[in-house]
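Example 484.
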Amino acid sequence: MTERLKTLTGLASTAKLPAYDRDALKAGILHLGPGAFFRAHFAPFTDAALAVAGGDWAIEVASLRTADVADHLNEQNGLYTMLVRDTSGTEAQVIGPILRAHVATRNPADLLERLEDPAIRIVSLTVTEKAYGFDAATGGLDLKHADVAADLADPQAPRGVIGYLVEGLSRRRAKGIAPFTPLSCDNLPSNGAVLKRLVLDFTERVDPALRSWIEQNVPFPSTMVDRITPASTDATYRDAEALTGRVDLAAIETEPFTQWVIEDHFADGHPQWEKAGALMVGDVSAYEKMKLRMLNGAHSLLAYLGYIGGYEFIRDAMDDAGLAALARRHMNAAAATLDPLPGINLDAYADELIARFANKAIAHRTYQIAMDGTQKLPQRLLEPATEAIAGGGKAETYAIAVAAWMRYALGVDRNGRRYELRDPRAAEIAALLADVPRSGGSVSTALFALPGLFPAALARNPSWTDDVANKLEILIQDSKLPLF
Ligand code: CS2
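Predicted structure in complex with D-mannonic acid:
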């Protein structure tokens, strides 16, 4: 039987290995949410920074929910394989900066103890949009979010992201330990500013003195993160084993492209990510908007139209000339809502995105991207739509994307097969739609009334809502593609 990946010795020469001494590593970062995206993006950037510039910046990770990834990483001494796939082949690289993994649900005291360690100078996050407890309608803390409500009731025994960060900072303040820098790496616009607002809203309610201390002492840099990372499958594990000679249950696969833009405001330093290709800037918001609106917006459009049209992967949807043209048109429309970014040609950026989406070596499920629509629509589609309309421009492509999301929200495909709507508001959506006739007008009216999702500028704009209703009617009548 093949051995498990546990050390760097004896691995097949087809795998690239960490170019630094792992035995000398010391932790400087605690990362919350060790999912595939973190393992394809943050950890490899840190791996490259350690190879070029060193420093005490190894990573401990903590999972706030499921234990599987953390357990696999611990069984493998933090090592795992990253497969980089494109049409010319697959390359394997073993990634080394993870020291150990914690599971908050199993041992919350252990995670709180790590948050207090002065050696931990950065607490980074890839926890997905829905974990923040962000209320899109107010821009502040969602008091009805289950973790937020539980943590406000019992702040010293947290279970959610905001609760853990606040309790960690509170303990550091009480002990005279300098704060860590919280570093959000999720696809939210101004993710650092959003995180700061949520932390301040939370502390306002539980400890106003802590709120002032955080406001004065804790930087919350925003970041733009980008690397297309499908969920791992049996093919990932099989190829990782073939290329390393070891069984690896924490292996991930990703595309060659990777990008990270980071605001350079840290309380106590950071790994030299800039030497690994990251861009350190004063303000990341223009990059974030570009990526969320052009990449993620077009991704969501393709995911909903593609899924209901019977395409399993984004690359299959891109093979449909009608859908590929819609995606490109969407990117152009999104680009028109952006301020110019020095040194960036948005047309070339769009061309590159089209090529990345079409990468035949990447099997990225439309169903994976379709997940959590209520958490993704605002920043990807609804904000640019609102701005486009306010600027007198066209918002048709957003009407198509929203109609496709609404069609998807019906939870049944064109062959009558039911699927699970993986969305934190799935039950609410199902209840709203329960007795509604399946027509474009009725379904869209019901979903426009979902509290807090659609800004009034869209939901009360009859020409736009009619456009959505008409497009939805076409999708309900006949989901054959191309549609528009
Ligand atoms: C995707 C993103 O799942 C999704 O919603 O749009 O995960 C996308 O692949 C990444 O943001 C690319 O950087």
